[in-house]
């Protein structure tokens, strides 16, 4: 370690930097550990030939596996569950479920709207039937023979009068 501090900083190839880092990690491992250091879990050290992307990907996968193994209410409500690998793999299924729920709700509202309109039309039809029935009964009452005769008697300006002779049938011969 003293040599690392005494060396002037120059451009060192990436492979040498990795080996220097791994060597310094080895010397730290050999140092006596305190109780605080014993309590902290050791993180796995990447192989000296692994690239930075591989190390980050591996660490992310390891963190997800340990985090997704136990789902707590706090993780679910906090939104941490949405970052789990299981959820990310099934995102299209969740999108499909949400789509069907939206279709279900919109269909329900349109059916309710149609039922309300149907109920209003039935009330209007019943009202129209009652008006037609009352109008028909009024016409029937006014067209009775006795009422027609009374109207003719009371109306002096009409040229119509009651027949004195019974009606008879005229037969026309066919040619």
TrEMBL record:
Which intervals carry biased composition (Basic and acidic residues)? Answer: 25-39
| Annotated InterPro entries | FtsL-like (IPR045755)
Residue ranges, annotated region (Disordered): 1-51
What sections of the protein cross the membrane? Answer: 91-111
What Pfam families does the annotation carry?
FtsL_2 (PF19579)
Which keywords does UniProt give here? Answer: Membrane, Transmembrane, Transmembrane helix
| Origin superkingdom | Bacteria
Protein name (database record): FtsL-like putative cell division protein
| The organism of origin for this protein | Segatella sinensis
């Amino acid at each position: 370690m003293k040599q690392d501090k005494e060396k002037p900083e120059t451009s060192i190839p990436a492979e040498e930097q990795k080996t220097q880092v791994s060597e310094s990690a080895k010397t730290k491992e050999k140092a006596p550990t305190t109780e605080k250091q014993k309590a902290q879990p050791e993180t796995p050290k990447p192989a000296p030939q692994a690239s930075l992307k591989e190390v980050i990907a591996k660490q992310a996968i390891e963190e997800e596996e340990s985090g997704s193994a136990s789902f707590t209410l706090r993780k679910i409500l906090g939104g941490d569950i949405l970052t789990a690998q299981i959820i990310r793999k099934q995102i299209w299924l969740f999108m499909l479920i949400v789509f069907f729920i939206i279709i279900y709700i919109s269909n329900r509202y349109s059916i309710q709207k149609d039922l309300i309109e149907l109920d209003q039309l039935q009330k209007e039809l019943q009202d129209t039937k009652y008006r037609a029935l009352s109008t028909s009964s009024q016409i029937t009452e006014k067209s009775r023979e006795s009422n027609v005769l009374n109207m003719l008697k009371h109306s002096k300006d009409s040229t119509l009068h009651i027949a004195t002779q019974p009606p008879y049938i005229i037969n026309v011969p066919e040619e």
